[in-house]
């Protein structure tokens, strides 16, 4: 998927060296195609050793229980995005406590997922009826009988069972998660 036309001025693009790397760059203006990236955020809202989970009402992952989350917006600060996503999906108010994990997926659209540990502030979990059709706080034992998404299982383990000192690679995750760079923070 080579970029053919400049998204700034519409002129043709060429491949040339920019800062020591061959990149697609505009033949007429200063535009450089640096790549395609996306950043996801996830919330691990803990209340009395129970985790806030929502059940996905849409694909991808329809029917799976996951932690609330979404993608950052162009001009919205990341700390506002995560609080908004939790509120919109299930009506719970929360504040950021820290970052507990990162997931890196270098692929056609390079995705970085930032997992936040959040403090519960208030609100009864109520599904929005669009993105999610169920919501609630659940303990580890309850989750055993639920259809929890594999990546969410890993995040719950990180948040409830302990983290690392600093950023460490998890090369042997508790569930198979092939192709992910997983980091406990
Ligand atoms: Zn251009």
From TrEMBL:
Annotated GO molecular function terms are:
hydrolase activity; metal ion binding
Could you tell me the keywords of this UniProt record? Hydrolase, Metal-binding, Transcription, Zinc
Domain of life of the native organism: Bacteria
One Pfam family named in its UniProt record? NUDIX
Domain named Nudix hydrolase is located at 36-161
Classification via InterPro entries: DNA-dir_RNA_pol-M_15_CS (IPR019761), NUDIX_hydrolase-like_dom_sf (IPR015797), NUDIX_hydrolase_CS (IPR020084), NUDIX_hydrolase_dom (IPR000086), Nudix_N (IPR029401)
The Swiss-Prot or TrEMBL record describes its family as follows: Belongs to the archaeal RpoM/eukaryotic RPA12/RPB9/RPC11 RNA polymerase family.
List the PANTHER family hit by this protein, alphabetically: NUDIX HYDROLASE 23, NUDIX HYDROLASE 23, CHLOROPLASTIC
Protein name as catalogued: NUDIX hydrolase
Identify the species of origin: Cohnella cholangitidis
């Amino acid at each position: 998927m080579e970029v053919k036309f400049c998204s700034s001025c519409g002129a043709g693009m060429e491949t040339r060296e920019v800062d020591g790397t061959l990149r697609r760059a505009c033949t007429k203006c200063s535009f450089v195609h640096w790549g395609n990236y996306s950043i996801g955020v996830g919330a691990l809202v803990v209340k009395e050793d129970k985790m806030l989970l929502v059940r996905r009402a849409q694909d991808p992952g329809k029917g799976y229980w996951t932690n609330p989350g979404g993608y950052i917006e162009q001009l919205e600060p990341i700390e506002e995005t995560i609080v908004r996503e939790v509120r919109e999906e299930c009506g719970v108010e929360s504040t950021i406590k820290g970052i507990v994990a990162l997931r890196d997926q270098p692929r056609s659209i390079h995705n970085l997922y930032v997992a936040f540990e959040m403090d519960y502030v208030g609100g009864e979990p109520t599904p929005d009826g669009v993105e999610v059709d169920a919501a609630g706080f659940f303990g580890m034992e309850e989750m055993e009988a639920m259809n929890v998404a594999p990546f969410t299982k890993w995040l719950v383990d990180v948040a409830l069972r302990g983290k690392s000192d600093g950023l460490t690679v998890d090369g042997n995750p508790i569930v198979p998660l092939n192709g992910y760079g997983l980091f406990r923070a």
